[in-house]
Amino acid sequence: MLSALLIVIAAIFFTGIIIRTKSLASGRKGPLIMQPVLDVIRLFRKGVVYSETTSFIFQIAPTIYFASVVMALLVVPFGQSSGVLSFNGDFIFFAYVLALGKFFSIIAAMDTGSSFEGMGASREALYSMFAEPAFFILMGSLALLSGHTSFQEIFTALHIGSQISYALAALATFVILMIAMIESSRMPIDDPKTHLELTMIHEVMILDNSGFDLGLIFTAGYLKFAIYGALIVNLFIGVIPYQYAIPSFFAIQFLMAVTIGIIESFMARFRMSHNPQFIVALTSVSLLIFFGVLLILNKFM
Amino acid sequence: MNLVIAFLLVPFAGMLLIPFLKVKGKGILTFALLLVNALISGYLAVQSLIGNDIVFSFPGSFVTGEIPIRIDALSGWFILIISLVFLTGSFYGLFYMKAYKEQKNNLTLHAIAFLFQYTSLVSICVIQNSFAFLLAWEVMALTSFLVIIFDHEHLATIKAGINYLIQAHFSIVFLMIGFIWVASKTGSYDFQSITTYSQSISGPASVMLFLFFFTGFALKAGFVPFHTWLPYAHPAAPSHVSGMMSGVIIKLGIFGIMRMLLVIKTDYITVGYIILILSLVSGLYGVMLAIVQHNLKKLLAYHSIENLGIIGIGIGIGSIGLGTGNQVLATLGFAGALLHTLNHALFKSLLFYTAGNVYLATHTLDIEKLGGLIKKMPQTALLFLVAAIAISGIPPFNGFVSEFIIYSGVYNWLSDASLVSLLLAVSTTSGLAMIGGLAMLCFTKAFGVVFLGSARSELPASCSEVPFAQLIPLYILAGMIIAIGLYPMAFISLLSHPVNLFTGSSGFGLSPAQVNVFKAIQPVSWASWILILLVISIYMIRRFALSHRKITTGATWGCGYEAGTPKIQYTAGSFVRSYSKLFSPFLQIGKHEDEVKGIFPQPAHYHTHPYDKVERWLIDEPLKHNKSFMGRFVFLHNGKLQFYILYGVIFILAVISIPFIYEKVYSFIELLKQL
């Protein structure tokens, strides 16, 4: 329960902090931290426009996308307190329920019959496929290290002691951060701030969404960031008491938002054709984690 | 026993009656007889699933020896799957075949072959005498051939059918070698003698014996590289038959492998590794090729190979669990494999039936020509969507449940100590994740291009939803897909006896560890329920919020371009273009391209033909060499009668003279020896 609450609070500020960081880095003052949330609230109050080409798929897709992200949120734990749902193999459910949302956002984009959105849909399907092995290998390594198969048990059992495990945590942070970037289609995979046609993946898929539906999609995006941030937090806090854990939760989320802002300010988007290589490299990094775990467990005999 | 005899007599009754009925009557009688037989076999199967195995034997003849019939839980599970798919398939076929009602004789043959096919499939599950087993296997191969070539006026159909027939007989050759091996050593055709024989021989020899059977059954199941008949046979057959082929017939290969795992006592770890690696390759290769197919049924056929791979992964880890004595791993592996067998039968037959609806409405299966069908056939589209989500292994449907069990098995396997199995386990998880992701790419393509957007070519004016009665079996299948997703425990508890056959804990009922394993699946269904409630409640909020707002419709946003046509939509080819560029080492795609040239350009064309690399190197190339070798003897075949008589005379002379010559040579050598 606690984790869901914390993630929602973090989500409110997360995107605002990214935008503010980017503004400051480019020498502007930038909008309010709360501006993204205000935008969403305004969207919720607006009417909607549907394309004549679309069917009911287009109308239910944002709802299902949002629900899938909320569902993923429910299984994420926070330190000792488990998520609303916690069971063996919940991280498998986590990945697959997010896939449900992706499935619907992809077919909704296909539903409009627009060539731009078809392009975005095709890329979203391809890239998310590449990110999945990395996630499963990462979680597999952590499961092997801790001997458990649910998010909460894995994270509480991660005893960070030796230097190798610090290195592993750093690598795992990198992997999760990059998965977050791929999932939310941010730099360096995709640039959400370029002109519509050039934004190649996520933003282009939602060209035809408006009003309430668009609000749901944006909110889901904010939540997604905070969810991945929470996973990173979980790598470090372990079983430390709440009075330290909660501040460090927000500190790490803040740090992650600032990092993303800085990455987006000082890095150019990769060429589309280079993205798959980059994403496959991510799998290699998670394999590195796996071998690190083997090293810790003395499996190389 | 009386029931079994009745079961065997029913198709003969059908054979006598069907030719004399009118077209409508033929179909209804076939369905009725199938229903009778399904009830009989279903009753026996349920008995065995709740723990009352049925064992008795027919006296047989002096050639076969006694023919034991043993209906155990494993047979029961497969019989139920077979019956379910055949019932829905034949009901669907009643309507699908309306388009062919002029071809009376053809329909008669089809109906009779269909009945015998069902009988042979069920018999294969229960016969435990290798002679009779092969007989039933042959009946299945021949009747399948007959039902596949229903549309035999097309050359492609006949070709696909013959391709199937040849490869089916290759499978029989391997099975025969295995059976003859055992029979020649033990003198008995009973499966139990295989068990005793495999216990008496050394480890490698028993693995060898298993591999003969495995190859035979893998040819039927369509494991890579034995899959090449499958993508031809499925699209060529009428849709209800392709649904059954994919849902049931290839599952008999799985049944055979599992039966042999039970019967042959061998080195389960080695066998498990072999099955696992082959399955992983099949899973990945199947989906990789599925993505680039433009024929909807061929796409689905390649997907069968992928799902066979997933089932095989389950069997593989289950077998490794048996070998290492890890009961939990074995339970998860076999339970996952068995449940996925049922799941795949459900969603794959549903997908083929919906593809059949699309074909009936549009007369094409080329997905590049389709589009926007959701507005014309909303129910078919919805059913296809359910099956597509289920087959991609996404919650809250059944595909997720079985994949979840297999994933749990693999993660459980991680606690195993050896380095090799750890590496294999991690490649299995990433392979499974990859398969899931690729399946999503494939089915968003299939659903998006066929049903969404607007039509990419002129569709026939009559294109509309099929009659509701035709959709009934489809709704039943979809209902089961959802039911397994939401109440997995009901189905998993049915699995306790089949799984128990493998894990072999004493007596009936599962060991406490296994019960815990099964209980661990429960929260998944809660999660699915919460997900559905969440979707409904958010949708309600949205409806409420939008009830006061203005809802307008307009053209799709063209980024300022106003004159959009359906031609500018993303096509199936463009949807997977970046994929096929990335995976080009594994694919073979032929291209025909006329580029746009000049000031007044002529119409341009761009065609791609995906082909199978394995087929090219394993089938086409050897065949080519074989042909060129055989071509040297073509002069013998000159069409002149005199020459053929001459060959006959030469043959007779040779038959008479060879013993003479042999005797002379022999005595000559004897003479030399004496010297």
Characterization of the model:
The complex is a heterodimer of chains A (301) and B (675). Chain A is mostly helical and 301 residues long. Chain A has helices at residues 2-25, 35-44, 56-75, 90-111, 115-146, 151-157, 163-183, 202-205, 211-237, 242-266, 275-296; one strand spanning 48-51. Chain A has one domain. Chain A is globular and about 60 Å long. Chain B is mainly α. Chain B has a domain at 638-674. Chain B is 72% helix and 4% strand. Chain B is built from 26 helices and 5 strands. Chain B has helices at 2-17, 23-49, 73-96, 104-126, 130-148, 155-186, 191-200, 203-221, 230-236, 239-263, 268-292, 296-324, 327-362, 373-376, 378-391, 398-413, 419-451, 468-486, 488-494, 496-503, 512-519, 522-546, 572-575, 577-582, 613-630, 641-674, and strands at residues 54-58, 67-71, 551-554, 588-594, 605-611. Chain B has a two-stranded antiparallel sheet with strand order 1-2. In chain B, strand 1 (54-58) and strand 2 form a beta hairpin. Chain B is globular and about 110 Å long. The interface between A and B is large, with 87 and 84 residues.
Question: What's this model, at a glance?
Answer:
The complex is a heterodimer of chains A (301) and B (675). With 301 residues, chain A is mainly α.
SSE topology:
The complex is a heterodimer of chains A (301) and B (675).
Chain A: H1 2-25, H2 35-44, E1 48-51, H3 56-75, H4 90-111, H5 115-146, H6 151-157, H7 163-183, H8 202-205, H9 211-237, H10 242-266, H11 275-296
Helix pairs in contact in A: 1-9, 1-10, 2-9, 3-4, 3-9, 4-5, 5-6, 5-7, 5-11, 7-9, 7-11, 9-10
Chain B: H1 2-17, H2 23-49, E1 54-58, E2 67-71, H3 73-96, H4 104-126, H5 130-148, H6 155-186, H7 191-200, H8 203-221, H9 230-236, H10 239-263, H11 268-292, H12 296-324, H13 327-362, H14 373-376, H15 378-391, H16 398-413, H17 419-451, H18 468-486, H19 488-494, H20 496-503, H21 512-519, H22 522-546, E3 551-554, H23 572-575, H24 577-582, E4 588-594, E5 605-611, H25 613-630, H26 641-674
Antiparallel strand pairs in B: 1-2, 4-5
Helix pairs in contact in B: 1-2, 1-4, 2-3, 2-4, 3-4, 3-10, 3-13, 3-18, 3-20, 4-5, 5-6, 6-8, 6-9, 8-10, 9-10, 9-12, 10-12, 10-13, 11-12, 11-17, 12-13, 12-16, 12-17, 13-15, 13-16, 13-18, 13-20, 13-21, 15-17, 15-18, 16-17, 16-18, 18-19
